[in-house]
Predict the structure.
Amino acid sequence: MGITHRTVTFVLVTCALLVAGAGWVAWGRGGPRSEPVHPTGTVPIADRSTIRGRIAYSTLAGDIWVMNANGSGRRRLTRSGRGNDFDPSWSPRARAIVFRTSRGHYVPDRAGRGAEGIFVVDARTKRQREIEPRTGGLFPDWSPDGALIAFSGLRGLTGDSVHLMTPRGKHVRDLGSSGAGECATWSPDGGRIAYCGHGGDGNWAIWVMNRDGSSKRQLTHPVPSSPPGSGGDSPGAWSPDGRQIVYSGWHGDFDLFLMNSDGTDRRRLTDWPGGDGAQAWLPSGQIVFAHFTRDQRLPRWYLVNPDGSGLRSLPWLYGAGDPLDWIQLH
């Protein structure tokens, strides 16, 4: 997610904090000392034995790490030095990770939209390569078939839009999203891309388009925020069958909402003090999300069912910055 450009979610604010942070956050043996209290009471801890998958994440120290979703097998992949590596996205078979970084060779983003370097790191060898265009990029997201990486690229001084490129940084193509186009999120079949955009007022809405940039359609129409540009909607994840999207929506705080992938049947999923941002929708049906309160630099992590039941905390993930990427291999 972005650092200096306008944003719709607290998730992006967190990344700004990641840049500012210089220290290492200790993981500890039991995660955070306390969990925020949900309005219905203390949140139960998830059963680690049922948690599957691999997670890529960043830390306050600005490096990319990986671990098993149950907290085991932590391993550092990058050493950013004075830079900051964050916003990781797995390749389909978890062999590599694309991420955004303040390192690299890109021209300064004088418009202040947050375009920086985009690197790919091999998850086994730790070898890295730089793939961003000369003007930089942000929000890299690997396609489900592994053939493309979606990212936000600059369009002169007029804005940014969703672009595609190969994992080698070749054949860069602008999909032509109008106004600002950011936070691209692939559908499970790779045929569609959800993204957030606005026409200049800073109130972000969720859009969807086909993989080739055709059939762009606005799905949400957020209530204007106060001050302008501080709110809106941002896609979090598609359901495994591609029929629904979970997203963050501004209603005084950022809560989670669900809607069909055509924008119909919108409904609230969470409603408690702080801000929520969805990260993954697992094959099990559970949604992984980050929860922030206003005094936190790092989120607490949770699972919830699409009907709002089964809320469970993941305290062993404390120390992982937002956003993270959770992949479940078959």
